[in-house]
Design a protein that fits this description.
33% of the residues lie in helices and 24% in strands. By secondary structure, the protein is an alpha+beta fold. The strands form seven sheets. Strands 1, 2, 8, 9, 10, 11, 13, 14, 15, 16 and 19 form an eleven-stranded antiparallel beta sheet that branches.
């Protein structure tokens, strides 16, 4: 049973805890308790084996295609977490004989802990403690510590621990058999290569054994089998004594920015082993302490869970991204599971990047450079579909993989056949989403060098795509965008999706501004891009489409139609689907063709549009659209509730906003036990941050300025959060009496506090004067 209130003292609102072991709930905890550092993610499968486990070790950027009919995916590396324990000939497992069980993830230090007392068939009791750390100080390093205390009498102990290459991605094997070697009965090495992409992965694991904190010398037996290797240690544990196994591991791949040679990696691991697990943990905990000092959001709430949920979101946001490598994006499940095959979606630009833009802009820049390098695949996709410019893949993986959306999905409840996945060819708004993110980033940071090196090219080539994508509608005397999927994926083959059309229009407007700025400067950047695009001609083509593009307008009731003829669809009662414990239950009754005939949304993409363009409608018409689409939205997308939270907060619907915030927090952290089996919902973590900072903190970037107009929920007494604006670190404190902002940087900046333009002078300067 998941618990949120077991952290006491300095650990209050830092611990997420499981207090009752249930084997059917393993997937939930494997994802929620995932550990990582952006380079690698280790799913929290238990050390001992159980039916239903999913052991994942995922390394950013190591994509591979398992077969000609497959799409590229993030491969599951050999498992390092396996530890089998035998006590007096009985295999330890928690199926029976367990008392005093608890398991906790410490968000403050990144350590995963498990404690229990196990009673053997001979009625002897043993205290077992398990600890794990993925180092934030050394991205290649991870480790574990296991201790066994004989409480009632001596026992014969056997421990098998090693590297298991028999893991797959739901059955797909991505690695060759590889090479295996054991050095001095201490260090194990497994090297293997991905079957198609040729990525070499080298894993090292090393063990040491302690008896009551002194070096022990168990009888050791090396084990090597097909795709598997381990060390078997055996000794007698005296009554009242504690045997401790420390297992330190290192992961290296040929796609590392600076690949290490195997012998260098082994030497580094041996040095870490000599220092021990506790030293590795201390280094990592210090790195976490430094990071939390920059990123923590502090609230005073009548509901302590809110604070824990915010920290949970921040923890996962910071372990899912390789912060210094522009060749890797953010997967839809982060590095916590195999869901969505490790691919990047629009989620990054719309739901995750705002967090990094306004707190760690250097990371946001890296992620946008990834999209620049994705232009190779975007241009290939546009050409394959008969368009100009850059048409971004709906799902992206490695830089030259192009579109990697699978073709077939789940079963059609009516026909029994696999449903064709149309998001790859039809969900095209991602192209404008990337352009939107580029513009937001530059507004927040003022990073002209990024624009010169990357941004202008993205804006212009994406706009060229939209200019070639439209169809002329003589009846409307307008250019239109036909046959797409908007953010609401319960509607396929729609025309003039409001979100898509407005975002495409904005994209083209950005490109026109970019060409204008380049033309005015006429520097080397202009020369380079003019040679590439013929800027005067590109400007003419984009301008013509920009001015003629059809933009849906609200009807007489003030409702902005999601797409042509949406308002003519049938309205059905959605109550039973909204009450369901799991997502997508409407598919149990209808197939996608039937759902397309109803006024029902996976998420309300009109409301996402109103979130991104806060001045599109006045508050009265926003509210009409909010309630209209909320009645028709199932929130089957993990992105949905955060959008509704922010808009409800903007509209002064405090109780509604707070309820949606709670729903967003519960997506992964809540008590439902199967919502996260395939991994956490990465973009939902960004959505939770948006609830707190955009919604309750009232932060928005509007017309080039940072606005802060907070609306705290009644349950919150105060809210403190960090921001970075134009390179200056700010701290904003909100309570029910008002808002105060401090400039912790070196230069004055101007922001808009509750509608009043204010110059924030650095605290240092104020203190000197």
């Amino acid at each position: 049973m998941i618990r949120y209130d077991l952290g006491k003292g300095e650990w209050k609102n830092w611990l997420v805890t499981d207090s009752v072991f249930n084997a059917s709930h393993q997937g939930k905890y494997e994802a929620v308790f995932c550990q990582g550092n952006g380079y690698l993610g280790q799913r929290a499968a238990l050390e001992e084996a159980y039916v239903g486990q999913t052991r994942n070790l995922l390394v950013a950027g190591t994509f591979n295609k398992a077969g000609d009919e497959e799409v590229t995916e993030l491969p599951n590396l050999p498992d390092l977490t396996n530890v089998s324990i035998w006590i007096d000939g009985h295999r330890f497992a928690m199926d029976s004989g367990v008392t005093d069980y608890s398991r906790a993830l410490n968000l403050k230090t990144g350590e995963l802990m498990r404690f229990l007392v196990w009673t053997s068939p001979e009625k002897k009791r043993f205290k077992l403690c398990f600890f794990r750390c993925v180092s934030l100080a050394d991205r290649h390093l991870l480790g574990a510590k296991v201790s066994i205390t004989a409480l009632d009498g001596a026992a014969d102990i056997r421990i098998d621990s090693g590297i298991d290459g028999r893991v797959t991605n739901t059955g797909a094997q991505h690695f060759t058999e590889g090479g295996k070697r054991i050095f001095d009965n201490t260090v194990l090495r497994m090297s293997s290569v991905t079957t198609e992409s040729g990525v070499k992965c080298t894993l090292h694991a090393a063990h040491r054994y302690l008896l009551d904190n002194r070096e022990a010398a168990p009888k050791l037996l090396p084990l090597i089998d097909r795709r598997f290797m381990a060390m078997r240690a055996a000794l007698q544990l005296p009554a009242g004594c504690t045997l401790t196994l420390e297992k330190l591991c290192r992961v290296d791949t040929s796609r590392d920015l600076c690949p290490a040679r195997p012998d260098e990696a082994k030497a580094t691991l041996l040095a870490a082993l000599a220092r021990g697990y506790d030293a590795m943990l201390a280094d990592s905990a210090l790195a976490w302490k430094t990071l939390w000092a920059r990123i923590d959001i502090r609230i005073e709430s009548a509901r302590p869970y809110d604070q824990l949920a915010l920290r949970f979101a921040l923890y996962h946001l910071n372990i899912m991204v390789k912060k210094d490598d522009p060749r890797a994006g953010i997967a839809a499940k982060g590095l916590s599971g195999e869901g969505y095959k490790g691919h990047s979606f629009w989620d990054t630009e719309i739901f995750i990047l705002p967090y990094f833009m306004l707190t760690q802009p250097d990371v946001a820049r890296t992620l946008l450079e990834y999209r620049f390098h994705n232009l190779y695949g975007a241009r290939a996709k546009a050409a394959e579909n008969g368009y100009d410019g850059a048409m971004y893949p709906w799902e992206s993986a490695w830089l030259d993989d192009g579109e990697v959306t699978p073709r077939w999905g789940a079963a059609d409840v009516v026909t029994g056949l696999p449903m064709e996945i149309l998001t790859g060819p039809l969900e095209q708004h991602i192209t404008a989403d990337v352009a939107f993110a580029v513009a937001q980033y530059v507004t927040v940071t003022g990073d002209q060098q990024f624009m010169d090196d990357f941004g202008y090219e993205i804006l212009i080539d994406t706009a060229r795509f939209w200019a070639s994508r439209v169809t002329w509608d003589a009846e409307r005397n307008s250019a239109v965008i036909l046959d797409v999927i908007g953010p609401d994926e319960y509607k396929e083959h729609v025309d003039n999706n409001a979100y898509t059309n407005y975002m495409a229009h904005y994209n083209m407007g950005l490109a026109l501004e970019a060409v204008g700025a380049l033309t005015e400067r006429k520097n080397a950047v202009y020369d380079r891009l003019n040679a590439q695009f013929n800027l005067p001609e590109a400007r003419k083509v984009i301008q013509r489409t920009y001015e003629s593009l059809y933009l849906p307008k609200p009807n007489d009731d003030g409702i902005l139609p999601q797409f042509d003829r949406y308002l003519d669809l049938k309205f059905i009662d959605l109550e039973k689907y909204k009450r369901a414990d799991t997502l997508g239950t409407i598919y149990n009754d209808y197939n996608i063709e039937q759902i397309s005939g109803f006024q029902v949304s996976k998420q309300a993409d009109v409301l996402v549009l109103l979130l991104l363009f806060s001045d599109m409608l006045d508050d009265e018409h926003k509210q009409r659209n909010f309630f209209f689409y909320e009645d028709r939205t199932l929130h089957d997308s993990s992105l949905s509730k955060s959008t509704h939270c922010v808009l409800a907060s903007d509209l002064g619907l405090g109780d509604t906003a707070y309820a949606f915030f709670q729903g967003a927090c519960d997506t992964d952290l809540g008590p439902a036990m199967h919502t996260s089996d395939m991994g956490i919902h990465a973009a939902s973590m960004g959505g939770i941050w948006q609830c707190a900072v955009y919604g309750f903190g009232g932060v928005r970037v509007i017309d080039g300025a940072l606005h802060v107009s907070p609306k705290l929920p009644e349950a919150w007494r105060s809210l403190d959060f960090p921001l970075v604006w134009r390179g200056q670190a700010l701290n904003v404190r909100v309570d029910h009496t008002g808002v105060h902002a401090d400039n912790l940087g070196d230069c004055a900046v101007r922001i808009v506090l509750e509608g009043i333009e204010t110059e924030l002078v650095p605290i240092r300067a104020r203190e000197i004067t």
